[in-house]
Design goal:
The protein is of the alpha/beta class and about 350 residues long. It has helices at about 60-70, 75-85, 90-110, 115, 135-145, 160-170, 185-195, 215-225, 240-245, 255, 260-270, 285-295; strands spanning about 1-15, 20-35, 40-45, 130, 150-155, 175-180, 200-205, 230, 250-255, 275-280, 300, 315, 320, 325, 335. The chain is globular, with a radius of gyration of 19 Å. The mean pLDDT is about 95. It binds magnesium ion. The site of magnesium ion has 6 residues, from loops.
């Protein structure tokens, strides 16, 4: 197998603001793995936030991964185990290689990924459409763009949360979920905010307080009625046993956990521990979003919307109709390059 990488930049239609940062553009590495004339494609976000440190030098990491790929693309588990040992911490690069190997195997077998995963493509969940933190006027403009999406995810975690959620609730009957990205400083503040937000019929609250405070999450859950989901606290399967009893669910992201196989492991462990699962994303293109979408029949909730927020997505794969995720039926990921580049 031969691996190559290409760095691409994508741009958001609107600046996207959360309690932690503001994004206008994003870089990804497209990873291609060739075997017997067939090419599998994956995406690795070039991001400092995915791994909680510096942006990964994906090209350099992929070069080092070449020696660990071997000759058989179907030995994905062994290849990933070698990568975990040889490239520790390289979660985005590993995710991109994991996605490319799955795309390659699906193409070699001539079947879409959801069939490789033994899943029913009719059972995909609805995805939410995310509205970042903004002025009430700008949020209302974004609400116009979000028409047709039955679930909205509102970013909160800064001053004025309740007022912003009220502005949206007054104008839409959509299901509203909120994501504080750890922006409320402690359990007491989170409990106060969540109990205020309950008046606006909020479906769930994501990562109310900074990660690492399990007692805080447990306290919040005891004193509020809205389901609590962990995101920044739930990066890999190793994080999950500590979260059992502290939250109602977790948000799984390919770029944080290291790819599709680890994501599947997280889904099953979370379900075994009595937690629901949301499949989420960072600012990514349709390439890695389609990979996550192929797993979506396994989970209760989806937040696979960042391709909808891009103005120059170079790929085409999953579709979203009235919020429902539609999986492509082509072999592997079923993703094609568009003319954007
Ligand atoms: Mg989140």
């Amino acid at each position: 197998m031969r691996i190559s990488t290409e760095i691409i930049s994508v741009h958001l239609k609107w600046p996207f603001t959360t309690a932690q940062d503001r994004t206008v553009a994003s870089q990804s590495a497209v990873i291609r793995i060739e075997h017997d004339g067939v090419v599998g494609m994956g995406e690795a976000k070039v991001s400092a936030d995915a791994c909680g440190g510096q942006a990964e030098p994906v090209g350099e990491y992929a070069g080092r991964a070449q020696a660990m790929l071997g000759k058989d693309p179907f030995r994905i588990e062994q290849i990933l185990a070698d990568l975990r040992r040889g490239l520790p911490g390289a979660c985005c690069t590993r995710a991109g290689i994991d996605i490319a190997l799955h795309d390659l195997c699906g193409k070699l077998l001539g079947v879409p990924l959801y069939r490789l995963f033994a899943l029913n493509p009719d059972n995909t969940p609805l995805t939410s459409y995310t509205i970042g933190i903004d002025t009430p006027a700008a949020m209302l403009t974004k609400l116009q763009e979000a028409r047709g999406y039955p679930i909205l995810k509102l970013k909160v975690g800064v001053a004025g949360d309740t007022e912003r959620v009220k502005v949206i609730r007054d104008r839409t009957p959509a299901v509203l979920r909120v994501d504080a990205n750890g922006g409320w400083k402690n359990a007491a503040e989170a409990i106060e905010r969540i109990n205020q937000l309950e008046a606006y019929d909020v479906e769930l609250v994501e990562q109310p307080i900074p990660p690492g405070n399990y007692d805080g999450l447990r306290t919040i859950r005891r004193h509020t009625r809205v389901p609590i989901f962990a995101d920044e606290d739930a990066r890999t399967s190793e994080d999950l046993s500590a979260l059992a009893g502290c939250v109602d669910g977790i948000n799984v992201k390919l770029m944080e956990c290291g790819g599709l196989r680890e994501a599947i492991r997280m889904v099953h462990i979370a379900h075994g521990l009595g937690m629901q699962v949301m499949l989420g994303c960072m600012v990514e293109t349709s390439l890695s979003l389609t990979a996550a979408a192929h797993l979506s029949p396994l989970v209760e909730h989806a937040d696979l919307d960042s391709h909808l927020l891009l103005r120059d997505d170079p790929f085409e794969g999953l579709k979203v109709r009235q919020g429902r995720i539609i999986l492509p039926s082509g072999a592997g990921l079923g993703v094609h390059e568009t003319d954007q580049t």
